[in-house]
């Protein structure tokens, strides 16, 4: 019981966290100006270590995320997206909701012309799930 209490750190007290945990806790999607505004080009990002927890069983879920987007005025900073994705590791969230929420947050941060996010979840209990969501600027 004592070990559990020691590992639970409140969000307000980040001084007891390891530096990586602090970066993940503070993780937000950071962008920078698109170096080729006006050029239509595609950026592909693969994140092979996505984890979250099943909201029903509490078991961990693992996935490879494939993000493809056409930038508008800004592009996402790669370390920032890595830290943002890592913030899901202890969340109880369904496959469907996690992929939709990640794309919503990405679109809010980057305002891309187009974006597709595919979550390819590892099989668990003989079930393999792939969730794909799309965004197109109007």
Task: Specify the structural class.
Answer: alpha+beta
CATH architecture call:
2-Layer Sandwich
Cα shape? globular
Mean pLDDT: 89
The CATH topology label is GTP Cyclohydrolase I, domain 2
Share of helix, binned: 25-40%
Spatial strand order of the main sheet: 2-3-5-6
Share in β-strands = 25-35%
Binding site for substrate: 76-78, 95-96
Family: Belongs to the GTP cyclohydrolase I family. QueF type 1 subfamily.
Keywords: Cytoplasm, Hydrolase, NADP, Oxidoreductase, Queuosine biosynthesis
Catalytic activity: 7-aminomethyl-7-carbaguanine + 2 NADP(+) = 7-cyano-7-carbaguanine + 2 NADPH + 3 H(+)
Quick summary:
This protein has helices at 2-7, 19-26, 78-86, 95-110, and strands spanning 31-33, 43-53, 60-70, 74-76, 114-121, 130-136. It is of the alpha+beta class.
What does this structure look like?
Belongs to the GTP cyclohydrolase I family. QueF type 1 subfamily. The active site is at residues 54, 61. GO terms for molecular function: hydrolase activity; preQ1 synthase activity. Pfam families: QueF. It is a single chain. The protein is α+β, with helices and mostly antiparallel strands. The protein has one domain: GTP cyclohydrolase I, C-terminal domain/NADPH-dependent 7-cyano-7-deazaguanine reductase, N-terminal domain (GTP Cyclohydrolase I, domain 2), CATH 3.30.1130. The protein has four helices and six strands; from the N terminus they run ααββββααββ. The strands form two sheets. A four-stranded antiparallel sheet has the order 2-3-5-6, with helices on one face. Strands 1-4 form a two-stranded antiparallel ribbon. A hairpin with an 8-residue loop joins strand 5 (114-121) and strand 6 (130-136). Helix 2 packs across helix 3. The longest helix is centred in the last third of the chain and has 16 residues, at 95-110. It is globular, with a radius of gyration of 17 Å. The chain starts with a helix and ends with a strand.
